[in-house]
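TICKET: design request
STATUS: open
ATTACHED STRUCTURE:
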């Protein structure tokens, strides 16, 4: 029982050190128009002041999303680079996926697969997270955690697929942010808790 009682404390202690950080600037190879540029994905537009990963993003509108030109995935231009002015440590990528409700001509703009590449000030690759899957129609941040990487200056984000079977429509994201620690999804925490509970029960026997 003593072992079990310590588990929540260990999990909370690890989580309490996490700090959400945001890029200082960003560039993109494609945008639908000036109202849908990459700046919208790093300025908190569409989210409440002091937002957290659990905050709900507002409905898709000009000024609160980055949206590419049509067919950007197939053209290889559905790419953005997030820039930090000084070295940072990153262990989680937060992504509020594209919301196609309300304005978009279809609901299939959301990212479903992507690559993430972390680089240092000399443009050397520090870490690559490739062919990651994302879910559409999620209004809060999806988190993608990994062992924290230090010395990061840029993060390259490449969209590989969206909801269109042929990937020939628009795509993009609503907002992105990062964390200094590896923060698992709530579902992952739940599974971790159950696994540790089972381990504690086995130790008790």
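STATUS: resolved
RESOLUTION: sequence designed for all positions
ATTACHED SEQUENCE:
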């Amino acid at each position: 029982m003593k072992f079990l009682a310590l588990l929540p404390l260990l999990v909370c202690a690890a989580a309490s050190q996490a700090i959400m950080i945001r890029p200082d600037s960003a560039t993109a190879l494609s945008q639908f128009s000036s109202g849908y540029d990459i700046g919208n994905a790093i300025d908190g537009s569409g989210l409440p002041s002091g937002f957290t990963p659990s905050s709900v993003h507002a409905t898709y509108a000009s000024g609160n999303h980055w949206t590419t030109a049509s067919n950007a995935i197939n053209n290889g231009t559905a790419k953005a680079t997030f820039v930090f002015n000084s070295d940072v440590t990153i262990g989680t990528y937060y992504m509020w996926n594209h919301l196609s409700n309300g304005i978009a001509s279809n609901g299939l703009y959301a990212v479903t697969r992507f690559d993430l590449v972390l680089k240092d000030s000399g443009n050397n690759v520090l870490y690559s997270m490739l062919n990651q899957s994302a879910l559409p129609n999620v209004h809060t941040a999806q988190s993608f955690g990994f062992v924290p990487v230090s010395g990061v200056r840029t993060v390259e984000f490449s969209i590989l697929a969206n909801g269109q079977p042929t990937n020939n429509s628009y795509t993009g994201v609503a907002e992105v942010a990062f964390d200094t620690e590896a923060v698992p999804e709530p579902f992952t925490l739940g599974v971790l808790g159950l696994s540790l509970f089972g381990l504690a029960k086995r130790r008790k026997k």
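CLOSING REMARK: The beta strands are 20-21, 25-28, 66-67, 79-97, 111-119, 125-133, 142-162, 172-179. The chain has two domains: 1-18+183-205, 20-182.
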